[in-house]
Amino acid sequence: MTSTPRTDDRGDLIVDWYDRAARDLPWRRPGVDAWAVLVSEVMLQQTPVARVEPVWREWLARWPSPAALAAASPADVIRAWGKLGYPRRALRLREAAAVVAAEHGDVVPDDVAVLESLPGIGTYTARAVACFGYGQRQPVVDTNVRRVVARMVHGRAEAAPARATDLLDIAALAPADHDRAVRFSVAVMELGALLCVAGTPRCGACPVRDRCAWRLAGSPAYDGPARKVQKFAGTDRQVRGRLLDVLRAATAPVEQDQLDRVWDDAVQRSRCLDSLLADRLVDQTPDGRFTLPT
DNA sequence: TACTCGTGGAT
DNA sequence: TATCCAAGAGT
């Protein structure tokens, strides 16, 4: 006997869970404008919430509009970025702010395609700004969402690499109601961040634990190809970090030999300094010393 | 597509 | 102590 398929209400269960369990993060509070949301999203790219919070507050107090940030020097922006990591994000955010100030009347665009055209704003961040900053119904897919969908929908233990169909997967689960659909986008991320985590998921507290394809399949272990672990010790990233650390702390241009002390391998050291110069994270004075770009 | 790009807390 | 991994983007 066939029956009319009941619409999938897992989206509503996740939104209800979010309403009672979500963290009180400053960029989610009422009255936070799209610029503040944009800054938070760029800072949160690959960087944990706990480290972003204090820096985000400082940035918004210091540069409350795109034009304000665009007027700052790269050196000030790099220093204010502190130790969030991946400092190229700070330069791109400043560049994006300059485009917004010059071409969009200092108002953060609300169109996903326009947002995606800005430096440092990709598929995820563009939709996050449109959804969280402007209240649009938009599918928003980050690593948390891919993991939740992999388990809840596809019955797999781990997230697959990002693909275009991710947006369709998650859009299909969103509640019909507009306001709830908007909240759903952040709610799935929160579920992945708090319960459906990469390590040991807390399925006992999950609002869809009885409707999760992965659990229903017996929580099978990951059986895909071995994922390559990201090394850090000894990499160019570590060397670049050390070089930049010296320049962030310096109050005046530093000599070459001061940079030479941070790493023994001269070939690698030179390569990294060159790459920092190419990235415009470091500048050289006419007399051959090194500084953050002024 | 696969790789690169920081940092530091959690496990 | 070593490994994992965190609201991605650019090339």
Automatic annotation (TrEMBL):
GO terms for molecular function: 4 iron, 4 sulfur cluster binding; 8-oxo-7,8-dihydroguanine DNA N-glycosylase activity; adenine/guanine mispair binding; metal ion binding; oxidized purine DNA binding; purine-specific mismatch base pair DNA N-glycosylase activity. It is an enzyme of class 3 (hydrolase). Its cofactor is [4Fe-4S] cluster. GO terms for biological process: base-excision repair; mismatch repair. CDD domains: ENDO3c. Gene3D superfamilies: Helix-hairpin-Helix base-excision DNA repair enzymes (C-terminal), Hypothetical protein, domain 2. The keyword Hydrolase applies. Keywords: 4Fe-4S, DNA damage, DNA repair, Glycosidase, Hydrolase, Iron, Iron-sulfur, Metal-binding. Pfam families: HHH, HhH-GPD. SMART domains: ENDO3c (SM00478). This is Adenine DNA glycosylase.
